[in-house]
Amino acid sequence: MADLRNDCFALPPGVNWVPVDSALARLRSGLEPVVGTERMAVADCGGRIVAEKVRARRANPPAANSAVDGYGFLHASLSGDTAELPLVEGRSAAGAPFGGVVPTGKAVRILTGALLPDGVDTVVLDEDVSIRDGAVRFDGAVRAGSNTRSAGEDRQPGAELFAAGHKVRSQDLALAAATGVGEMTVFRRLRVGVLSTGDEIVPAGQAAHPHQTHDANRPMLLDIVRTWEMNPVDLGHSADDAREIVRVLDLAAEAVDVVLTSGGASAGEEDHISRVLRDRGTLDIWRIAVKPGRPLALGTWRGVPVFGLPGNPVAAFVCTLVFARPALRRLAGAEWSLPVASKLPAAFSKTKKRGRREYLRARLTADGAVEVFRSEGSGRISGLSWADGLVELGDDAQQIHPGDPVDYLPFSVFGL
Fold first, then answer.
1. pTM (2 decimals)?
2. Distance between CA atoms of 134 and 291, rounded to whole angstroms?
3. Which of 45, 58, 71, 326 is the most buried (most CB within 10 A)?
4. For residue 112, which of 149, 74, 59, 156 has the smallest C-alpha distance?
5. What dotted CATH number matches 65-149?
6. 91 with 110: CB under 8 angstroms?
7. Could you tell me how far CA 122 lies from the centroid of its own chain?
8. Fold for domain 342-414?
9. Tens of pLDDT along 47-64?
């Protein structure tokens, strides 16, 4: 496992408020994969990140073959408007090729995927022929090479299939297998530790006093990590006690590749995560011009990156999607990538002030417009469950009316 350099999160001197684009750019420049690699059978590589370039080991298709069920012949056999070619004995089928040579002026029965026999370069469809007295008859206006596939027309041996950083999808497994690839070198799954902090936090389902809060962040973050096909590691809950936090972080440094914490990440009196990282690890608090969110504590503990998320579940959720997702993917070995929004008509009105990027909980209406949750209050966790995505409003001031195009980011573009 690789360690990040100590200054990977450091901001330039004098920078206080960081625009979202600048924060993402700095993350991109400071992060690199922190996981090792392993060699795996192709069938087991779905969802993994390619660590070494993958090349085709054989051509696809490996030899010229028929794309349809029909009759094969040499195109030079044709003359005139109508063709009538005697059929040779036998046929060519997938897995059972014709063993001989088809003479010029004759045709052979051929099935989809079957190798083209010697003497065949063109195939005519079943539907376009008639059979009479041992001969196949059809319109002679057939283009040379019709209904055939040439050897290697999809991929040639040695052709690059996937570059390092590519996440392997189901369809990629088909391409790799078809071109003779049996194994790939992939990155090990990123182990992501999730820690909740705060004296007021109690486990979900446990009896709680009015001054206590059920732990909503930890189950949410652990499931997000699991959905992203990384390995979630539950680091539990720590009270606002520096010695306890140090103990948990020490254990985490031996067990995970990155830590997500929620709560205690700002600069307040009870923000022990920030204090511990500042005193015994590394810490940079980024005040990001974003709503909801703002403070994001970024640091390292014994070489392990730590992302200190806001304690508010709505802010923690948004910051995880916007900032942690591309960062974790890069740490896991993937290429840096950001989601692409769709321009859709607004089904709401809003006056936005200049200075911060805003993310509104949103979902599509029946007619394809975008509506937003009735309240922008970050304490309304129900808005996360109500929503299917986010509306992203840029840093500048905006006046939005119904029907105006807005940037809509369905949760699916964040891998959820």
1. 0.86
2. 78
3. 71
4. 149
5. 2.170.190.11
6. yes
7. 41
8. Beta-clip (2.40.340)
9. 999 999 999 999 999 999
